[in-house]
Design a protein that fits this description.
The protein is an alpha+beta fold. A hairpin with a 2-residue loop joins strand 6 and strand 7. The protein is globular.
Length: about 200
């Protein structure tokens, strides 16, 4: 499934890369090291197509931060990392004062903060560029068996379309790959694309 034009994909990628740049600056302040965050690919799927294999998630467990965004269009937004990568990122965020063995007890709070920073940076970038207003809920973190977490996310959202952004996150010498996922209804997707097309026509 890919009803997006090449120009729409390029525009979305650029919008989210601007947001990723904002998120990277905020994360750099938290971890005290340079953070590189980029969105190399944007793809569209039917929710029913999504599983660990499609997203190349080859880890048995997955961590997911979820927020709901509402405005001219509605979307459930998620940040996905394999659990081992999530714990490494939490360790980087918490710094040397917390041992790797004690990281798990801080996982939920730190991942909610990470998700809040990245998701809100990307969505606020979109809102600024497309000149619209989006409101967000508080982030919720869940972790569990990879396909079970994915299926629960899809079931809870009850939306047929998934806009998937592959992201690269590098903190100092550590490199992680994750995903930003937006679950949308068909009407919300069309509303988003209408705003994208209006922006493109004004360039």
């Amino acid at each position: 499934m890919n009803p997006l034009t090449e120009l729409q994909v390029d525009t979305l990628t650029e919008i989210f890369n601007i947001g990723a740049g904002r998120a990277a600056s905020s994360l750099s302040e938290i971890v005290g090291d340079p953070v590189m965050l980029s969105v190399p690919r944007v793809q569209l799927y039917q929710s029913s197509e999504i599983n660990a294999e499609v997203l190349s998630l080859n880890s048995p467990r997955l961590g997911a931060v979820k927020q709901h965004f509402s405005g001219p269009f509605n979307a459930d937004a998620m940040l996905l990392f394999t659990e081992d990568r999530a714990l490494e990122i939490v360790h980087d965020m918490m710094g040397s004062q917390v041992s790797i063995n004690d990281i798990a007890e801080f996982e939920q709070e730190a991942m909610c903060e990470l998700g809040n920073i990245i998701l809100n940076a990307c969505l606020s970038s979109m809102a600024d560029i497309l000149k619209l207003t989006l409101d967000s809920s508080l982030p919720v973190y869940s972790v569990g068996e990879t396909n079970a977490v994915l299926q629960q996310i899809i079931l809870d959202a009850n939306q047929p379309i998934m806009l998937v952004l592959h992201i690269d996150l590098a903190i100092e010498k550590r490199h992680s790959q994750g995903y930003l996922v937006f679950l949308l209804s068909s009407s919300s997707l069309q509303e988003l694309l209408a705003h994208i097309d209006h922006f493109i026509s004004g360039i």
